[in-house]
Amino acid sequence: MSDTPASELHELDRPWRIWASVAVMVILLIGILLGVIIIPVVQGRNAGLDAYTAICRALGIIPGSPARQQIVDRTPPTPVSQVTWTADVLQILANANPERGRAKVLEVCVSCHGEQGVSIAPEFPHLAGQSGAAIYKQLHDYRTGSRTHQLMTDLAKALEEPAIADVAAYYAAQPKRNPNLATLAESPKPIVRLVELGDPSRNIPPCASCHRPGSGGPIETPILSEQGRDYIVLQMKMYASGERRNDVYGRMRTIAAKLTPAEIDGLAAYYRAGFR
Amino acid sequence: MRNVERLCLAHFWVAFAAFVVACVLGTWQMWVRSPLGAHLGTPGQYFMSVTAHGVAMAYVLTTFFIMGFGYFVAVTALDRPLPGKQWAWSAFWMAIIGVVMILVPIGMGQATVLFTFYPPLTASPWFYIGLVLVVVASWVWCILMLVAMREWKRENPGRPVPLAMFATVANAVMWLWTTVGVAVELLFQVIPASLGLVQTIDVGLSRTLFSWTLHAIVYFWLMPAYIAFYTMVPRAAGGRLYSDTMGRLTFILFLVYSLPVGMHHLMMDPEHGNGTKFIQMLLTAFVSIPTLLTIFTITASLEIAGRLRGGRGIFGWIAALPWQRPAVLATGLAFVMLGFGGFGGLINMGYGMNAMVHNTSWVTAHFHLIFGGSVVIMYFAIAYEIWPRLTGREHMSLAPLRLQLWLWFIGMMVMTLPWHWLGLQGQWRRVANFNYADPLIAGWGPWVIVSLAGGVVLLVSALLFAYNLFVLHRGPSMATGRQLYALAVHPPQRVPAALNGFGLWNVLVLVLMLLAYGYPLAQFAITPSPSAIVHRVY
Predict the structure, then answer these.
(1) Which of A109, A249, B105, B311 has the least C-beta neighbours within 10 A?
(2) pLDDT tens-digit readout, A19-72
(3) What residue in B sits closest to A6 (Cα-Cα)?
(4) Looking at beta carbons, which residues of chain B come within 8 Å of A38?
(5) Distance (Å, rounded) from C-alpha B384 to C-alpha B378?
């Protein structure tokens, strides 16, 4: 009670302070002893690891599990694309200059892709409003030979690294045309379903899970809205046959190979119309 | 009551409005994932709905309910006016602005990142900034709770703080510790990424920071249920609290052991050593102690009530309990759900067993049963218990209240038990739809439909709950004010400082957190790992 002397209160409180601290620390020590020393050393011995390595692995100081040897894969990697999205590359994209890009476009690209990114022939892709990262990756892939084209390979090789990003930024900044809602409304239901839900029975994911701004695709995913129909059909067929192979993890080769020609055509028509 | 009725009611109505909307969304989600509603919505719509459901349930319902309940306890348990009422109202409006800022981007499809964020997925900055506002508002609440207790102690030197307030402050102190992790994640990683200031994000670091918050936040939601168990239920049953000290120890153990354990959510993550995971797994085991203490103490308190009401024999006291009273009924039902849910939790806690269920519906079912079941049914009980005191009106009949509680219990069991079973069969979580044409998945179909039926019952119960509260606003005026809080069998005259404040326990939490999270966080500075590309969904 309030009339208890302070010294007596202090005396009464002391065992609580001491024993609570001791109890918590003992639990913690048991945890450390078991988790960092005893279990890793015993498990490590069975896995042929020395005690020091096992303890360091348990602490997370060196990578790997204390309970087994790490499998080391010495097969040299053969990536389908040389582009890696490091912080440096992303910084190059962020610092790209559309004005410089415009100069380069007028010098090199305009004859096929147009000044505004609207191409002159159905076999060339429209680039207006395309994702900058997508254009950057394709140009880079042409430069390194991951993707080949009779015209683009030589043209891209003539472009230096920052110029690629500048051109990408310029076309990315060009406005898209308005989608043709009438055509979109005519899209057959199975095609719309393929875009929005995919076909789980054939392990085909929805196109829209990647090819829509804001969805779950990797950064280099191109925007397909208002793309030329013939161009999309051509690329899908090249993916299906394996002629084009610069898609990471073979995603598009896997998907395109499962689509029927009618579906490829329907999807190309759908995307030509735009989806917004 | 000293003129905080409007403040409390405002918080509660926001909480329960979010709750009802989230129930509608939840039922829709169950429907489109079942064979009955397959192909009805797009994955984009599904994840929009899941995000809204999670945010409304986990952030809006809980935070507003706990804040409102805290203000109520501070005034009624301490029997003195709330200090800083203007601050409380400012915090309320700040949180409202935050909620609007969260909900608008979700509605526009610019925040389909679920309520746990999953970096490198990045939503519209408004989503995160709104969340920060809600958290800051809750910090104001924490400080007001601490001030209220401190002022009461100054006026009543040497006297034990009433258990309801002691527990509320334990929750406030825990919440201040808890939110540090997510606040650092949002302010230094996610919001800069969302604003486009950085292009990459260290996902290992952000997951570690979120794990700091992720387990203790669940106890933040749980505490009001435990406060009701200790301080309201024994009284509602007509008995006394078996032990006041047990209550204090329970809330202290929650404070100490809910924080350094979050890494059990990261057992499948590669960025931490097995030893650190083991230590946190062991500490997690100790979180079960306060729950076991509570089950013992509350059962003993109910036994006292049952025997006072003439119950005889080993189990006769159970039948003698006043089950017609909503608080008693809710406690019984909550204990059943806590039993099943707690058992499931022990499985999640074990490294090996967790590996089998980690990415399956088992986990979703578990947290629905524990939080949506045991905790939320006690939110109902608390609302039914204190609403008459806030409005000065009586429930006209207790029958619709009991019906609502039973429906919630039945709905939750029917929804979550098959869901656990599906998880054991490998049904994955965080997906928008299932392909029931696949023969393996087709076998899940009937159980998913049973689950959906449970979801529909839950929705009915949620609507009935809102109806019951609306009806109360027109009920007859309360004749006499009953006492709300239970007395202990031996009311404490003097308790050691360690059971009357949080100084010692804060030091111990600090030590535990330094050991549990010190190196796991420091490693990201010592050897920076490769970062992921920020993936903006807006």
Answers:
(1) A249
(2) 999 999 999 999 999 999 999 999 999 989 999 999 999 998 888 888 888 777
(3) B158
(4) none
(5) 10
**Residue B198, Cβ density class (10 Å: 0-12 exposed, 13-18 middle, ≥19 buried):** middle
Beta-carbon separation of A36 and B279 below 8 A: yes
pTM for the model stands at 0.88
Residues A87-172, CATH architecture = Orthogonal Bundle (1.10)
Would you kindly state where each structural domain of chain A is located, as residue ranges?
Answer: 6-59, 87-172, 181-273
Q: Minimal Cα distance from B109: which residue of A?
A: A214
Question: With respect to CATH, is domain B5-536 assigned 1.20.210.10?
Answer: yes
Tell me if residue B321 falls in helix, strand or coil. coil
Q: Report CB contact under 8 Å: A28, B512.
A: yes
Judge whether A87-172 and A181-273 match in fold. Answer: yes
Active site residues of B: 215, 219, 366-368, 429-430
Q: Give the helix/strand (H/E) hosting A237.
A: helix A229-241
Which chain A residues touch B499 with a CB distance below 8 Å?
Answer: 16
Instruction: Write down the domain spans for chain B.
Output: 5-536
Q: Do A9 and B519 touch (CB under 8 A)?
A: no
Q: Is the ipTM of this complex over 0.85?
A: no
Q: Do B275 and A59 touch (CB under 8 A)?
A: yes
Dump pLDDT digits (tens) for A206-260. Answer: 898 888 765 567 889 998 888 899 999 999 999 999 999 999 989 999 999 999 9
Among B39, B437, B505, the residue with its CB nearest the CB of A201 is B437
A87 and B199 in contact by Cβ < 8 A?
yes
Beta bridge mates, B535: B121
Alpha carbon distance A9, B497 (integer Å): 8
Rounded-to-10 torsion of CA B426, B427, B431, B432? 160
Do residues A184 and A224 touch, judged by C-beta distance below 8 A? no
Task: Round to whole Å and give the CA distance between A191 and B154.
Answer: 72
- Closest partner residue to A27 (CB to CB) among B286, B434, B520 is B286
Angstrom distance (rounded) from CA B25 to CA A99:
48
**B36 interfaces chain A, CB cutoff of 8 Å:** no
A-B contacts (CB, under 8 Å): 141
Top CATH class, A181-273? mainly alpha
Cross-chain residue pair B274–A57, CB shorter than 8 Å? yes
The encoded tokens of residue A211 equal: 């090819």
Burial A28-63 (b: 16+ CB within 10 A, else e): beebbeebbeebbbebbeeeebeeebbbbbbbbeee
Tokens of A132: 């900058």
Phi, psi of B428 (to 5 degrees): -80, 155
